[in-house]
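Need DUF4287 domain-containing protein's 3D structure for a figure. Predict it.
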Amino acid sequence: MSAQVKGPASYFPSIEKKYGRPVAEWKELIRSSPLTRHMDLVTWLKTEHGLGHGHANALVAHTLAEKG
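Structure prediction for DUF4287 domain-containing protein:
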């Protein structure tokens, strides 16, 4: 029996399927961006890369949480 993924990571399979790029690539884009604020990054992903709000928010939240 496998544990169910919760939180932002639960969006990762649908993000990869919908946008055709691995999550690691999205996270690298976020890390390499000069933007640092959560909502600025979400807006950037939505406007420049066409992500939906929930997907962009999940990627940013997970990536920023890794930074500490």
